[in-house]
User: What shape does this take?
Amino acid sequence: MTGSVEELTLDPEDWESFRKSTHDAVDVMTDYLRDVRSRPAWQPVPSDVAGKFESACPESPQGLDSSLADFYRDVLPFPSGNIHPRFWSWVCGTGSPTGMLSEFLAAGMNSIGLGFDESASSHVEVQVLEWLKSLMGFESDTSGLLVSGGSMANLVALTVGRNLKCGYDVRRLGMNPHGFPRVAAYASTETHSSVQKALELLGVGETFYRRIPVNGDYEIDVRALRDQIESDIAEGLRPALLIGNAGTVNTGAFDPLNVLADIAEEFDLWFTVDGAFGSLARLTNRAPENLKGLNRADALAFDLHKWLHQPYNAGAVLIRNGDAHRNSFSVAPAYLTRDRSGVASGPADFSALGIQLSRSFVALRVWLSFKTHGVGQFRKLIEQNIEQARYLEARVGETPHLELLAPTPLNIVNYRYNPDGLDEEALNQLNGKILTALQTGGIAAPSSTRLVGRFSIRVCIANHRTRRHDLDELVKHTVELGEELARTDR
Ligand SMILES: *Cc1c(COP(=O)(O)O)cnc(C)c1O
Assistant: This one.
Protein backbone atom coordinates (compact mmCIF):
# COMPACT_ATOMS: atom_id res chain seq x y z
CA MET A 1 0.00 0.00 0.00
CA THR A 2 2.57 2.61 1.11
CA GLY A 3 4.84 1.75 -1.81
CA SER A 4 2.28 2.82 -4.40
CA VAL A 5 1.77 6.42 -3.20
CA GLU A 6 3.99 9.07 -4.74
CA GLU A 7 5.00 11.52 -2.01
CA LEU A 8 6.86 14.72 -2.78
CA THR A 9 9.59 16.72 -1.05
CA LEU A 10 11.66 19.80 -1.79
CA ASP A 11 14.87 17.91 -1.08
CA PRO A 12 17.03 17.26 -4.14
CA GLU A 13 16.83 13.88 -5.83
CA ASP A 14 20.57 14.04 -6.25
CA TRP A 15 22.31 15.50 -3.22
CA GLU A 16 25.70 15.41 -4.93
CA SER A 17 24.51 17.63 -7.72
CA PHE A 18 23.03 20.01 -5.11
CA ARG A 19 26.39 20.03 -3.33
CA LYS A 20 28.14 20.91 -6.58
CA SER A 21 25.78 23.81 -7.36
CA THR A 22 26.19 25.09 -3.82
CA HIS A 23 29.98 24.90 -3.99
CA ASP A 24 29.82 26.84 -7.24
CA ALA A 25 27.65 29.46 -5.56
CA VAL A 26 30.22 29.80 -2.78
CA ASP A 27 32.90 30.44 -5.42
CA VAL A 28 30.77 32.96 -7.27
CA MET A 29 29.87 34.86 -4.10
CA THR A 30 33.39 34.83 -2.68
CA ASP A 31 34.75 36.33 -5.91
CA TYR A 32 31.83 38.74 -5.94
CA LEU A 33 32.76 40.21 -2.58
CA ARG A 34 36.51 40.02 -3.20
CA ASP A 35 36.21 41.96 -6.47
CA VAL A 36 33.52 44.45 -5.45
CA ARG A 37 35.88 47.42 -5.82
CA SER A 38 36.42 46.72 -9.51
CA ARG A 39 32.72 47.22 -10.28
CA PRO A 40 30.77 50.50 -10.48
CA ALA A 41 29.68 51.96 -7.15
CA TRP A 42 26.15 51.58 -8.46
CA GLN A 43 24.42 50.92 -11.76
CA PRO A 44 20.76 50.91 -12.75
CA VAL A 45 18.98 47.73 -13.81
CA PRO A 46 18.91 47.86 -17.63
CA SER A 47 15.39 47.96 -19.02
CA ASP A 48 15.72 44.64 -20.85
CA VAL A 49 16.70 43.02 -17.55
CA ALA A 50 13.94 44.78 -15.61
CA GLY A 51 11.48 43.46 -18.20
CA LYS A 52 12.34 39.90 -17.24
CA PHE A 53 10.94 40.48 -13.76
CA GLU A 54 7.49 40.81 -15.24
CA SER A 55 7.12 37.19 -16.30
CA ALA A 56 4.40 35.12 -14.65
CA CYS A 57 4.89 32.76 -11.71
CA PRO A 58 6.29 29.45 -13.03
CA GLU A 59 4.04 26.43 -12.52
CA SER A 60 6.58 23.83 -13.63
CA PRO A 61 10.17 23.38 -12.51
CA GLN A 62 13.01 25.15 -14.22
CA GLY A 63 15.60 23.34 -12.10
CA LEU A 64 18.25 24.69 -9.75
CA ASP A 65 21.14 25.29 -12.13
CA SER A 66 19.03 27.08 -14.70
CA SER A 67 17.39 29.22 -11.99
CA LEU A 68 20.80 30.04 -10.55
CA ALA A 69 22.01 31.03 -14.01
CA ASP A 70 19.13 33.54 -14.18
CA PHE A 71 20.17 34.87 -10.78
CA TYR A 72 23.84 35.23 -11.73
CA ARG A 73 22.95 36.97 -15.00
CA ASP A 74 19.97 39.18 -14.08
CA VAL A 75 20.07 39.80 -10.33
CA LEU A 76 23.57 39.57 -8.93
CA PRO A 77 25.15 42.36 -11.05
CA PHE A 78 22.63 44.94 -9.83
CA PRO A 79 22.76 45.24 -6.03
CA SER A 80 21.68 48.32 -4.05
CA GLY A 81 25.32 49.29 -3.99
CA ASN A 82 26.01 49.43 -0.27
CA ILE A 83 28.56 46.63 -0.46
CA HIS A 84 30.75 48.96 -2.54
CA PRO A 85 33.54 51.06 -0.96
CA ARG A 86 32.17 54.29 -2.50
CA PHE A 87 28.51 53.88 -1.54
CA TRP A 88 27.49 56.53 0.98
CA SER A 89 23.73 56.98 0.42
CA TRP A 90 21.19 57.21 3.27
CA VAL A 91 22.53 55.24 6.25
CA CYS A 92 23.61 51.81 5.09
CA GLY A 93 25.85 49.09 6.40
CA THR A 94 28.20 47.12 4.18
CA GLY A 95 27.50 43.58 5.34
CA SER A 96 30.45 41.20 5.44
CA PRO A 97 31.64 37.84 4.14
CA THR A 98 31.11 36.43 7.63
CA GLY A 99 27.57 37.78 7.55
CA MET A 100 26.96 36.17 4.17
CA LEU A 101 28.06 32.83 5.51
CA SER A 102 25.96 33.17 8.64
CA GLU A 103 22.85 33.70 6.51
CA PHE A 104 23.52 30.42 4.79
CA LEU A 105 24.04 28.58 8.05
CA ALA A 106 20.99 30.13 9.69
CA ALA A 107 18.77 29.30 6.73
CA GLY A 108 19.97 25.71 6.93
CA MET A 109 18.93 25.44 10.58
CA ASN A 110 15.79 27.43 9.81
CA SER A 111 15.01 28.10 13.47
CA ILE A 112 11.70 29.73 14.28
CA GLY A 113 12.81 32.40 16.73
CA LEU A 114 10.13 32.02 19.38
CA GLY A 115 12.62 31.91 22.24
CA PHE A 116 10.52 29.34 24.06
CA ASP A 117 11.42 26.76 21.47
CA GLU A 118 14.17 24.88 23.28
CA SER A 119 16.98 25.16 20.77
CA ALA A 120 20.54 26.43 20.71
CA SER A 121 19.20 29.28 18.55
CA SER A 122 17.13 30.56 21.48
CA HIS A 123 20.13 30.41 23.80
CA VAL A 124 22.33 32.19 21.25
CA GLU A 125 19.75 34.95 20.95
CA VAL A 126 19.58 35.40 24.71
CA GLN A 127 23.38 35.61 24.80
CA VAL A 128 23.53 38.14 21.97
CA LEU A 129 21.00 40.33 23.78
CA GLU A 130 23.19 40.20 26.89
CA TRP A 131 26.17 41.30 24.79
CA LEU A 132 24.24 44.16 23.23
CA LYS A 133 22.97 45.38 26.60
CA SER A 134 26.44 45.53 28.05
CA LEU A 135 27.92 47.18 24.95
CA MET A 136 25.27 49.89 25.07
CA GLY A 137 25.65 50.41 28.81
CA PHE A 138 22.33 48.97 29.93
CA GLU A 139 22.02 46.89 33.12
CA SER A 140 21.62 43.15 32.71
CA ASP A 141 18.03 43.20 33.99
CA THR A 142 17.12 45.37 30.99
CA SER A 143 14.68 43.75 28.60
CA GLY A 144 15.55 43.50 24.93
CA LEU A 145 14.50 42.12 21.59
CA LEU A 146 16.04 41.62 18.18
CA VAL A 147 13.75 43.05 15.52
CA SER A 148 13.77 43.79 11.80
CA GLY A 149 15.42 47.19 12.17
CA GLY A 150 15.22 50.67 13.62
CA SER A 151 11.64 51.28 12.50
CA MET A 152 10.34 48.24 14.32
CA ALA A 153 12.56 49.01 17.31
CA ASN A 154 11.08 52.52 17.53
CA LEU A 155 7.56 51.13 17.24
CA VAL A 156 8.16 48.63 20.04
CA ALA A 157 9.78 51.22 22.31
CA LEU A 158 7.04 53.80 21.71
CA THR A 159 4.31 51.21 22.28
CA VAL A 160 5.70 50.42 25.71
CA GLY A 161 6.02 54.11 26.51
CA ARG A 162 2.51 54.95 25.37
CA ASN A 163 0.99 52.08 27.33
CA LEU A 164 2.85 53.07 30.47
CA LYS A 165 2.28 56.83 30.30
CA CYS A 166 -1.11 57.37 28.65
CA GLY A 167 -2.91 57.25 32.00
CA TYR A 168 -5.42 54.49 31.26
CA ASP A 169 -5.45 50.82 30.32
CA VAL A 170 -4.97 51.29 26.61
CA ARG A 171 -4.80 47.57 25.89
CA ARG A 172 -8.32 47.18 27.23
CA LEU A 173 -9.90 50.51 26.32
CA GLY A 174 -8.13 51.41 23.10
CA MET A 175 -6.87 54.92 22.44
CA ASN A 176 -8.57 58.11 23.59
CA PRO A 177 -11.35 56.75 25.82
CA HIS A 178 -13.92 59.31 26.90
CA GLY A 179 -12.84 61.53 29.77
CA PHE A 180 -9.08 61.15 29.40
CA PRO A 181 -6.68 63.74 27.98
CA ARG A 182 -5.04 63.16 24.61
CA VAL A 183 -1.49 61.90 24.65
CA ALA A 184 1.25 64.09 23.14
CA ALA A 185 4.71 63.14 21.87
CA TYR A 186 7.81 65.31 21.31
CA ALA A 187 10.81 65.11 19.03
CA SER A 188 12.91 67.44 16.93
CA THR A 189 12.10 68.26 13.32
CA GLU A 190 15.18 66.22 12.33
CA THR A 191 13.72 62.99 13.73
CA HIS A 192 13.43 59.97 11.44
CA SER A 193 10.13 59.33 9.65
CA SER A 194 9.75 55.93 11.34
CA VAL A 195 8.88 57.77 14.56
CA GLN A 196 5.99 59.52 12.82
CA LYS A 197 4.80 56.20 11.40
CA ALA A 198 4.94 54.62 14.85
CA LEU A 199 3.05 57.46 16.50
CA GLU A 200 0.36 57.32 13.84
CA LEU A 201 0.05 53.55 14.22
CA LEU A 202 -0.16 53.96 17.99
CA GLY A 203 -3.10 56.33 17.65
CA VAL A 204 -1.25 59.37 18.96
CA GLY A 205 -1.94 61.09 15.65
CA GLU A 206 0.22 63.48 13.72
CA THR A 207 -1.41 66.54 15.29
CA PHE A 208 -0.24 65.49 18.72
CA TYR A 209 3.24 64.65 17.53
CA ARG A 210 4.94 67.93 18.35
CA ARG A 211 7.88 68.64 16.05
CA ILE A 212 10.30 70.85 17.97
CA PRO A 213 12.65 73.16 16.03
CA VAL A 214 16.42 72.64 16.05
CA ASN A 215 19.36 74.95 16.64
CA GLY A 216 22.15 75.69 14.15
CA ASP A 217 23.75 72.33 14.94
CA TYR A 218 20.50 70.51 14.11
CA GLU A 219 19.99 69.59 17.79
CA ILE A 220 16.60 69.93 19.45
CA ASP A 221 15.91 73.41 20.83
CA VAL A 222 15.49 72.60 24.50
CA ARG A 223 13.80 75.89 25.35
CA ALA A 224 11.19 75.37 22.62
CA LEU A 225 10.63 71.80 23.85
CA ARG A 226 9.95 72.96 27.37
CA ASP A 227 7.61 75.72 26.17
CA GLN A 228 5.63 73.26 24.05
CA ILE A 229 5.26 70.77 26.91
CA GLU A 230 4.12 73.50 29.29
CA SER A 231 1.61 74.93 26.87
CA ASP A 232 0.27 71.45 26.11
CA ILE A 233 -0.25 70.82 29.82
CA ALA A 234 -2.03 74.14 30.13
CA GLU A 235 -4.31 73.07 27.28
CA GLY A 236 -5.19 69.82 29.03
CA LEU A 237 -3.10 67.39 26.99
CA ARG A 238 -1.01 64.64 28.52
CA PRO A 239 2.65 64.88 27.47
CA ALA A 240 3.78 61.26 27.46
CA LEU A 241 6.57 60.50 24.99
CA LEU A 242 9.90 62.17 24.35
CA ILE A 243 12.11 60.95 21.53
CA GLY A 244 15.79 61.91 21.56
CA ASN A 245 18.10 61.52 18.59
CA ALA A 246 21.50 59.91 18.77
CA GLY A 247 22.54 60.54 15.18
CA THR A 248 20.02 62.16 12.86
CA VAL A 249 19.80 61.02 9.25
CA ASN A 250 20.43 64.42 7.70
CA THR A 251 23.57 65.46 9.53
CA GLY A 252 24.35 62.91 12.27
CA ALA A 253 23.33 65.36 15.00
CA PHE A 254 22.88 64.37 18.63
CA ASP A 255 20.23 65.89 20.86
CA PRO A 256 21.58 66.63 24.35
CA LEU A 257 20.39 63.40 25.93
CA ASN A 258 21.20 64.39 29.50
CA VAL A 259 19.07 67.50 29.21
CA LEU A 260 16.25 65.49 27.64
CA ALA A 261 16.47 62.93 30.44
CA ASP A 262 16.06 65.77 32.97
CA ILE A 263 13.00 67.07 31.16
CA ALA A 264 11.54 63.57 30.91
CA GLU A 265 11.96 63.16 34.67
CA GLU A 266 10.47 66.53 35.44
CA PHE A 267 7.36 65.97 33.32
CA ASP A 268 7.06 62.18 33.78
CA LEU A 269 7.62 61.40 30.10
CA TRP A 270 8.78 58.14 28.56
CA PHE A 271 12.21 58.93 27.18
CA THR A 272 13.21 56.85 24.19
CA VAL A 273 16.32 57.31 22.07
CA ASP A 274 16.45 56.68 18.34
CA GLY A 275 20.09 55.68 18.10
CA ALA A 276 19.78 53.73 14.85
CA PHE A 277 23.43 54.26 13.98
CA GLY A 278 24.68 57.12 16.16
CA SER A 279 24.32 55.30 19.46
CA LEU A 280 27.00 52.88 18.25
CA ALA A 281 29.51 55.71 18.63
CA ARG A 282 29.31 54.70 22.26
CA LEU A 283 31.60 51.79 21.42
CA THR A 284 34.42 54.20 20.55
CA ASN A 285 36.44 56.98 22.14
CA ARG A 286 34.86 59.39 19.67
CA ALA A 287 31.38 59.59 21.17
CA PRO A 288 29.95 63.11 20.98
CA GLU A 289 29.43 64.85 24.33
CA ASN A 290 25.64 64.91 23.75
CA LEU A 291 25.48 61.12 23.80
CA LYS A 292 26.08 61.23 27.57
CA GLY A 293 22.73 60.55 29.13
CA LEU A 294 21.99 57.58 26.90
CA ASN A 295 22.19 55.46 30.05
CA ARG A 296 19.22 57.42 31.43
CA ALA A 297 16.89 56.58 28.54
CA ASP A 298 13.91 54.33 29.18
CA ALA A 299 14.48 52.70 25.81
CA LEU A 300 16.97 52.60 22.98
CA ALA A 301 16.33 51.62 19.36
CA PHE A 302 19.32 50.81 17.18
CA ASP A 303 20.27 48.96 14.05
CA LEU A 304 22.59 46.04 13.61
CA HIS A 305 22.49 46.19 9.81
CA LYS A 306 23.95 49.68 9.64
CA TRP A 307 27.12 50.38 11.61
CA LEU A 308 27.51 46.80 12.82
CA HIS A 309 27.39 45.54 9.22
CA GLN A 310 25.03 42.63 9.80
CA PRO A 311 23.19 41.43 6.70
CA TYR A 312 19.78 43.04 6.25
CA ASN A 313 17.73 43.09 8.22
CA ALA A 314 18.56 43.29 11.88
CA GLY A 315 17.89 45.79 14.64
CA ALA A 316 17.49 45.80 18.39
CA VAL A 317 15.46 47.49 21.08
CA LEU A 318 16.44 47.69 24.73
CA ILE A 319 13.88 48.56 27.38
CA ARG A 320 14.87 49.21 30.96
CA ASN A 321 11.51 48.44 32.52
CA GLY A 322 11.09 44.75 31.71
CA ASP A 323 7.64 44.51 33.28
CA ALA A 324 6.33 47.38 31.21
CA HIS A 325 7.82 45.74 28.13
CA ARG A 326 6.15 42.41 28.79
CA ASN A 327 2.88 44.03 29.84
CA SER A 328 2.66 45.71 26.45
CA PHE A 329 2.84 42.62 24.27
CA SER A 330 2.20 39.54 26.32
CA VAL A 331 -0.75 37.48 25.14
CA ALA A 332 -0.82 33.84 26.09
CA PRO A 333 -2.97 31.61 23.92
CA ALA A 334 -3.05 27.96 24.94
CA TYR A 335 -1.22 26.89 21.79
CA LEU A 336 1.79 29.06 22.62
CA THR A 337 2.58 28.31 26.25
CA ARG A 338 6.02 27.71 27.57
CA ASP A 339 6.56 24.35 29.23
CA ARG A 340 8.94 23.06 31.87
CA SER A 341 10.35 20.42 29.55
CA GLY A 342 10.10 19.41 25.94
CA VAL A 343 10.24 21.51 22.76
CA ALA A 344 8.49 24.47 24.41
CA SER A 345 10.89 24.81 27.37
CA GLY A 346 13.25 27.38 25.85
CA PRO A 347 14.89 30.23 27.78
CA ALA A 348 12.75 33.21 26.69
CA ASP A 349 9.43 34.25 25.26
CA PHE A 350 10.22 36.78 22.56
CA SER A 351 6.63 36.94 21.33
CA ALA A 352 5.73 38.58 24.66
CA LEU A 353 8.18 41.40 23.88
CA GLY A 354 7.21 42.49 20.40
CA ILE A 355 4.95 42.20 17.41
CA GLN A 356 6.54 39.38 15.47
CA LEU A 357 6.03 35.77 16.49
CA SER A 358 8.16 33.71 14.11
CA ARG A 359 11.51 35.37 13.43
CA SER A 360 14.64 34.49 11.49
CA PHE A 361 17.83 33.52 13.28
CA VAL A 362 19.27 37.03 13.16
CA ALA A 363 21.18 36.40 16.36
CA LEU A 364 23.49 33.94 14.63
CA ARG A 365 24.85 36.70 12.40
CA VAL A 366 25.78 38.84 15.37
CA TRP A 367 27.09 35.90 17.35
CA LEU A 368 29.26 34.61 14.53
CA SER A 369 30.64 37.99 13.50
CA PHE A 370 31.40 39.13 17.07
CA LYS A 371 33.16 35.83 17.73
CA THR A 372 35.00 35.88 14.41
CA HIS A 373 36.20 39.49 14.44
CA GLY A 374 35.88 40.47 18.08
CA VAL A 375 33.88 43.51 19.10
CA GLY A 376 37.15 45.46 19.18
CA GLN A 377 37.24 45.31 15.39
CA PHE A 378 33.77 46.86 15.19
CA ARG A 379 34.80 49.64 17.56
CA LYS A 380 37.79 50.44 15.36
CA LEU A 381 35.73 50.34 12.18
CA ILE A 382 33.25 52.85 13.57
CA GLU A 383 36.11 55.08 14.67
CA GLN A 384 37.70 54.71 11.26
CA ASN A 385 34.52 56.00 9.60
CA ILE A 386 34.29 58.95 12.01
CA GLU A 387 37.89 59.87 11.19
CA GLN A 388 37.24 59.45 7.47
CA ALA A 389 34.29 61.84 7.74
CA ARG A 390 36.58 64.39 9.41
CA TYR A 391 39.10 63.85 6.65
CA LEU A 392 36.45 64.48 3.98
CA GLU A 393 35.22 67.51 5.87
CA ALA A 394 38.77 68.90 5.83
CA ARG A 395 39.23 68.06 2.14
CA VAL A 396 35.97 69.84 1.27
CA GLY A 397 36.99 72.78 3.44
CA GLU A 398 40.31 73.25 1.66
CA THR A 399 39.04 72.68 -1.90
CA PRO A 400 38.10 75.81 -3.85
CA HIS A 401 34.41 75.97 -4.82
CA LEU A 402 33.39 73.21 -2.42
CA GLU A 403 31.27 74.34 0.50
CA LEU A 404 30.27 72.52 3.69
CA LEU A 405 26.55 72.84 4.42
CA ALA A 406 26.39 71.49 7.98
CA PRO A 407 28.64 70.57 10.89
CA THR A 408 29.99 67.00 10.90
CA PRO A 409 29.51 65.70 14.44
CA LEU A 410 29.83 62.06 13.40
CA ASN A 411 30.03 60.29 10.04
CA ILE A 412 27.87 62.40 7.74
CA VAL A 413 29.31 65.16 5.55
CA ASN A 414 27.04 67.60 3.70
CA TYR A 415 28.53 69.74 0.97
CA ARG A 416 27.94 71.29 -2.41
CA TYR A 417 29.83 72.65 -5.36
CA ASN A 418 29.56 76.42 -5.37
CA PRO A 419 31.29 78.36 -8.15
CA ASP A 420 30.90 82.06 -7.63
CA GLY A 421 27.95 83.93 -9.05
CA LEU A 422 25.08 81.41 -8.98
CA ASP A 423 21.90 82.02 -7.02
CA GLU A 424 20.48 79.40 -4.63
CA GLU A 425 18.09 77.91 -7.15
CA ALA A 426 20.83 77.52 -9.77
CA LEU A 427 23.11 75.94 -7.15
CA ASN A 428 20.39 73.46 -6.25
CA GLN A 429 19.96 72.52 -9.91
CA LEU A 430 23.67 72.22 -10.52
CA ASN A 431 24.35 70.07 -7.48
CA GLY A 432 21.44 67.79 -8.33
CA LYS A 433 23.07 67.20 -11.70
CA ILE A 434 26.46 66.59 -10.13
CA LEU A 435 25.00 64.00 -7.79
CA THR A 436 23.19 62.21 -10.61
CA ALA A 437 26.37 62.17 -12.68
CA LEU A 438 28.38 60.74 -9.77
CA GLN A 439 25.83 57.97 -9.32
CA THR A 440 25.04 57.09 -12.94
CA GLY A 441 28.72 57.24 -13.83
CA GLY A 442 29.29 54.53 -11.23
CA ILE A 443 31.89 56.81 -9.59
CA ALA A 444 30.36 57.08 -6.13
CA ALA A 445 26.94 56.97 -4.54
CA PRO A 446 26.27 59.70 -2.02
CA SER A 447 22.61 60.64 -1.56
CA SER A 448 21.04 64.06 -1.18
CA THR A 449 19.07 66.07 1.27
CA ARG A 450 17.88 69.64 1.71
CA LEU A 451 19.35 71.74 4.48
CA VAL A 452 17.59 75.05 5.03
CA GLY A 453 16.34 74.73 1.46
CA ARG A 454 19.79 74.04 0.00
CA PHE A 455 20.38 70.92 -2.06
CA SER A 456 23.16 69.00 -0.35
CA ILE A 457 25.37 66.16 -1.51
CA ARG A 458 25.21 63.96 1.53
CA VAL A 459 27.95 61.46 2.32
CA CYS A 460 27.19 59.01 5.11
CA ILE A 461 30.17 56.79 5.81
CA ALA A 462 29.09 53.58 7.54
CA ASN A 463 31.24 51.45 5.29
CA HIS A 464 34.15 49.24 6.30
CA ARG A 465 35.44 49.12 2.72
CA THR A 466 35.82 52.88 2.29
CA ARG A 467 39.42 54.14 2.12
CA ARG A 468 40.60 57.75 2.23
CA HIS A 469 41.56 57.62 -1.43
CA ASP A 470 37.89 56.89 -2.20
CA LEU A 471 37.02 60.19 -0.57
CA ASP A 472 39.79 61.92 -2.55
CA GLU A 473 38.17 60.54 -5.71
CA LEU A 474 34.81 61.92 -4.63
CA VAL A 475 36.26 65.39 -4.10
CA LYS A 476 38.12 65.30 -7.40
CA HIS A 477 35.12 64.14 -9.42
CA THR A 478 32.73 66.56 -7.75
CA VAL A 479 34.91 69.47 -8.79
CA GLU A 480 35.47 68.15 -12.32
CA LEU A 481 31.78 67.43 -12.85
CA GLY A 482 30.89 70.77 -11.31
CA GLU A 483 33.16 72.68 -13.69
CA GLU A 484 31.91 70.73 -16.67
CA LEU A 485 28.20 70.97 -15.84
CA ALA A 486 28.42 74.65 -14.87
CA ARG A 487 30.10 75.35 -18.22
CA THR A 488 27.55 73.46 -20.33
CA ASP A 489 24.72 75.16 -18.41
CA ARG A 490 25.84 78.67 -19.24
C1 LIG B 1 17.71 53.91 9.41
C2 LIG B 1 17.14 54.69 10.51
C3 LIG B 1 15.90 54.37 11.08
C4 LIG B 1 15.06 53.23 10.53
O1 LIG B 1 15.72 52.02 10.66
P1 LIG B 1 15.39 50.79 9.68
O2 LIG B 1 16.39 49.79 10.11
O3 LIG B 1 15.63 51.27 8.28
O4 LIG B 1 13.99 50.40 9.91
C5 LIG B 1 15.44 55.11 12.13
N1 LIG B 1 16.16 56.14 12.62
C6 LIG B 1 17.35 56.49 12.10
C7 LIG B 1 18.09 57.65 12.71
C8 LIG B 1 17.88 55.78 11.03
O5 LIG B 1 19.07 56.12 10.52
